[in-house]
Structure formats: C-alpha cells, structure tokens
Design goal:
three-stranded antiparallel beta sheet; 361 residues; single chain; 2 domains; alpha+beta; eight-stranded mixed beta sheet; BirA Bifunctional Protein, domain 2; 22% strand
C-alpha cells in the first residue's frame, strides 16, 4: 500500500468516525485546509517532473475528491440524524386552547378597500380592474393628456425601457383612470364602476409614497350632470365617515380628463387641536372630480352627444389617514407589527352598512 493509499484510508476512517459537525469540521481542516495533509500533497505537484506529475497527479486529485465526497456525505448523515432527533423530541399539544383574541389583523388599506366596495355596491357600482403595467395610450393619451403634460415626465412616472408590439411606451400606471377607458371600450354604456388598486409615482415624503392606493369612480349614462356627482360624493362620504354632518365645497379646477373639473373640500371640526372630518369650522381638500371630457368619452368608443358622465378619484391611504387619525403615509408600508397592532382591524370585522363600515381592532 502506498503512502497516498494509507492517507486515504486514515482520512476516510476519520470522516466516518466523526460524531458531530464540529468533529467533522476538524477532519476537513486537517485534510483540506491550507495546512492540511491533502493540500500539502497538492503543493508538491509543482516541484515534480512532468513524468512524476503525470503518474502522481491523478492519485493526489483522486484523494482530494474522495475525501471531499466523504465529508459531504457524512455531513448530510449528521444533519439528517439531528433533524430526526429534533422531530422525535418535539411534540405539539393540539389540545391547547386558542389565544383569547386572534393575533392577526387586517391592514387598514385592505379594510378601507372593503369599506369602499360595500358603500359603492349599495349605490349600484361594480368593481372593475386593470393592469398595473400600462401603455402610455391608456394611461395618458386616451385621458386627453397632451404630450407636454408634466405627469408624463420621467421624474414623475416610472417608465420601462421596452415598448409594446404597437410601439407604445410601457409604464407603471400613475392612476387607476386607465381602467375607465378599458371598461368603456369593453362594456360600452351605461356604466357605473369603481376602480380601486395600486398606482405608482416617483414621489416620497410623509404624505406621498412611490406606490400607493387609489380608487376612482365613473358613471356614464344619458342626461348626467354635476348635481348627480355632488349627491354621489355626499352620500359616499357620509357613509364612509359615518357622520351626517358632512359638508362639501366644490371649487373650479382643471383636469385634462374632465370638463368642468372641480376640487372637493370637506368641512372639519377641531377636536383637541386635531382636525376631525365633519362640521364646517374649516376646509380640507379631499379629492378631484368633474364631468367626463367629451374627448375621453370618444376615446372610450362612445358618442359624447348621447352619453355623459362624471368621475372622481381619491387616495385610499389618504382616506384611511383622515378617518383613523394616522399622520404619516410611509408607516402604511413599513410592516411594523406594533403599528399594525395599534391600527389593524379584527379579521372578523367585515364592513357592512347595517353594522358600520369600520371599527379599529
């Protein structure tokens, strides 16, 4: 038996005899470490003649491979044995009582989404959805937003480097308004929908995040006017804030996709220095709205002389902040369990108009 064969036998016996991971690691270092016996043999290859290297090289490399494979196999055996021992020692007592209260909670955004769906369902609205990765035609052009509109700028919108098959630029949608266009093209009129979902804009501070949630409403029918919009907004906000003293103020504004356009302010009352929605001690802006622009109705495949409509949009996260007293939008997405424990909702608290649409857990 050669010296290499004897070393191989010794090392393989040492690997097989290693009783735990620490002992196996000692064998590995002694054999394959920088100062190990196998590593020492590998270093001698450089000093050999070509004939010696051709003869001894395969033996030394074979030794290294055999030891390496043996160590890996023994490591698997030790880990499997440790796992079996752990599983045999651990038990689960299924007779233990459940916790007094559910530990999980519903995120405020999910809760508010459910609240809004319940309110608008009672008003006859269906829920519509669309892709979050949009093309610039649905996101901008079909909504009457000109090429020079600031919202199209790179610093406001997340664009993709590639275009679609029709040569349109692709982007993360900046609002849920494209759902309005897609639904008009697909379903025609009359139409009464809400479009909740995630939207993306390049902005971040206490009241803005790169991703946030928005809900938009669209009504298309014959003989629709601004009075229908105001009544819908008042009914929706009274149901959401669960107060009858909601007072609205509509101010003229400009949005490319509505004409006329109005900003909507809601009255508030100061309670312990905080603004609480309801009353009319002051005003805060809550959403934008207006009558759907004729060009947008045309882009939706409808005749604007026959069909009219109104639309409005609001941030779901902002609604949650106003109703439940949250002051920093970024906390919605931090995943802090303490924040969720404070602001989260019971998983059994299903919003209903009869029982109330929202109660903090």
């Amino acid at each position: 038996m050669t010296d290499i064969d004897r070393l191989k036998a010794e090392l393989l016996d040492a690997v097989a005899g290693a009783g735990d991971a620490a002992a196996l690691e000692q064998v590995r270092v002694a054999a394959l470490g920088k100062q190990g016996s196998v590593s020492g043999l590998l270093k001698t290859l450089g000093k050999m003649t070509p004939e010696e290297r051709q003869s001894e090289g395969p033996k030394i490399h074979g030794l290294r491979e055999a030891v390496t494979d043996a160590i890996a196999a023994r490591k698997d055996e030790l880990e499997s044995a440790a796992l079996e021992q752990q599983l045999a020692a651990e038990t689960i007592d299924l007779s233990l009582p459940a916790p007094e209260a559910p530990r999980g909670s519903v995120h405020p955004v999910s809760q508010v989404m459910d609240e809004l769906a319940e309110i608008f369902a009672d008003l006859g609205f269906a829920v519509a959805a669309g892709p979050e990765i949009e093309d610039d035609w649905h996101n901008f052009t079909a909504l009457n937003m000109p090429e020079s509109h600031p919202a199209r700028a790179m610093h406001d919108t997340f664009y993709f480097p590639d275009r679609d098959a029709q040569g349109r630029e692709m982007l993360l949608r900046t609002h849920t308004s494209p759902v309005q266009i897609r639904t008009m093209l697909k379903e025609g009129a009359p139409l009464r929908i809400i479009a909740p979902g995630r939207v993306y804009r390049s902005d971040s501070d206490a009241t803005h995040t790169p991703m946030f949630h928005q809900i938009e409403a669209l009504v298309i029918d014959r003989d629709i006017h601004l009075g229908h919009l105001k009544w819908t907004l008042e009914t929706f906000l009274k149901a959401y804030f669960e107060r009858d003293d909601i007072v609205l103020r509509l101010r003229p504004s400009y949005f490319p996709f509505t004409e006329p356009s109005v900003e909507v302010d809601v009255g508030y009352t100061l309670v312990d220095g905080k603004r609480v929605v309801g009353g009319s001690e002051g005003w805060m802006e809550v959403l934008g709205s207006g009558m759907v622009n004729r060009r947008v109705i045309e882009f939706g495949g409808l005749d604007p002389d026959e069909w009219q409509g109104f639309a409005f949009g609001i941030g779901v996260d902002r609604l949650a902040m106003l109703k439940y007293g949250m002051d920093d939008l970024r906390a919605f997405f931090d995943g802090d369990v303490r924040w969720l424990s404070h602001y989260g909702f019971s998983a059994l608290d299903v919003p209903t108009l009869s029982a109330g649409v929202g109660t903090l857990a």
